[in-house]
């Protein structure tokens, strides 16, 4: 990935794109905390953060289409001013009804420029070689995780621990400065969409694969959003609210390590298969109860089939092989039973004296 950063003009452009996206790692969490500070309700904070996220998700395709037609400069500069102003308003508006907070958050999300998409559209120009391009997209993934580490740890954990308003104003400043500096870079100012690009009302949504990916990542986003609400809600009764940023930063650190592993693994021969396996593994880890139960079921089926095969074994060698398989499968099944017991009863009951 370091070879990508040595390409002409990449380091300054990529740094500006990271600065413009830095708030995305902290803003949802800050809105939850600020709303809780004003209303005493994490549920209201979740509604406000959801308003920002939904507006961001709905508006970004429209803004990206505007970029395709008018270039990056106008969209980046105009959106940055509007979005940064809304973030500053959210920080300073004071005690207002929750619907008003939701409206301000929605404006901040709807106007936030798609600087990540703008950066990704420049990689084919900046890194025309296929291997460098793969490394560039892996670098994008790693940068996203760094953003989701620095956002909670620095903006929420350090600045937010001192003042939530100051943290929100920091987010406003990073969006404004990062997007404007990015828009002044020659690569961004000179970018134009392909002259023969086909126009369609649905845009990329015409592709069935794109629709499947949107559905899959929307479900992943629900899980991520639940964590952003659940972590501060869990820590607040314990009096450990100051650890919220650190906990989410550690979560991002694990994802960052995986990004580097993916980059070192190189481009997959079958990308859909790798993505499917990663999503299954992630989902099973987040739903450990069902993962263990599913593994128990598979092992139980394997034990039954193995026993039936052993009964009909035609030779001593085949019987010995089946016995070894049954012993290993039975051992795994026992460990799965113990794991399920720990999940269902994580704390051992104290013995009566």
Quick synopsis:
By secondary structure, the chain is mainly α.
The level of helicity is over 70%
Shape annotation: globular
Number of helical regions: 15
**Main beta-sheet annotation:** none
Compute the separation of the termini in Å. Answer: 60 Å
CATH architecture of the largest domain: Up-down Bundle
Report the β-strand fraction as a percent range.
under 5%
The CATH topology of the largest domain is given as: Growth Hormone, Chain: A
User: Compute the gyration radius: what is it?
Assistant: 25 Å
Tally of distinct domains: 2
Note poorly predicted spans.
Answer: 344-353
Order of SSEs, N→C?
A: HHHHHHHHHHHHHHH
Structural class: mainly alpha
Describe this structure in words.
The protein has two domains: 2-286, Growth Hormone, Chain: A, CATH 1.20.1250; 288-344. It is 80% helix and 0% strand. It has 15 helices and no strands. It has helices spanning 2-5, 10-21, 27-39, 42-70, 72-92, 98-111, 115-126, 130-162, 164-184, 186-189, 208-235, 244-265, 271-286, 288-311, 316-344. The radius of gyration is 25 Å and the shape is globular. The model is unreliable at 344-353 (pLDDT under 50).
């Amino acid at each position: 990935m370091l070879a990508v950063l040595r390409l002409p003009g990449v380091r300054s452009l990529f740094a500006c794109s990271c600065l413009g996206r830095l708030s995305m790692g902290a803003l949802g969490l800050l809105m939850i905390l600020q709303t809780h500070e004003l209303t005493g309700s994490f549920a209201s904070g979740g509604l406000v953060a959801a308003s920002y996220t939904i507006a961001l998700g709905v508006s970004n395709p429209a803004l990206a289409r505007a970029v395709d037609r008018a270039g990056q400069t106008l969209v980046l500069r105009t959106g940055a001013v509007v979005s940064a102003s809304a973030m500053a308003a959210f920080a300073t508006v004071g005690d207002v009804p929750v619907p008003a907070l939701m409206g301000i958050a929605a404006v901040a999300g709807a106007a936030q420029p798609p600087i990540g998409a703008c950066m990704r559209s420049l990689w084919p120009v900046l890194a025309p070689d296929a291997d460098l391009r793969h490394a560039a997209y892996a670098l994008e993934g790693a940068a996203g995780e760094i953003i989701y580490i620095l956002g909670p740890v620095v903006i929420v954990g350090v600045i937010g621990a001192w003042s939530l308003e100051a943290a929100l104003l920091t987010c406003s400043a990073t969006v404004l400065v990062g997007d404007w500096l990015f828009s002044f870079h020659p690569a961004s100012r000179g970018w134009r969409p392909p002259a023969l690009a086909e126009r369609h009302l649905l845009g990329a949504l015409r592709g069935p694969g794109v629709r499947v990916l949107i559905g899959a990542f929307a479900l992943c986003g629900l899980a991520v959003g639940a964590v952003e609400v659940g972590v501060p809600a869990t820590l607040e009764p314990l009096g450990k609210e100051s650890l919220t940023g650190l906990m989410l930063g550690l979560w991002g650190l694990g994802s960052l390590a995986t990004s580097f592993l993916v980059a070192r693994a190189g481009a997959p021969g079958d990308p859909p298969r790798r993505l499917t396996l990663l999503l299954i593994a992630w989902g099973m880890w987040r739903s450990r109860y069902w993962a263990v139960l599913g593994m128990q079921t598979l092992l139980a089926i394997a034990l039954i089939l193995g026993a039936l095969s052993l009964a009909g074994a035609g030779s001593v060698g085949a019987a010995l092989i089946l016995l070894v398989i049954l012993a290993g499968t039975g051992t795994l099944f026992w460990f799965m039973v113990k794991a399920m017991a720990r999940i269902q009863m994580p704390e051992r009951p104290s013995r009566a004296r």
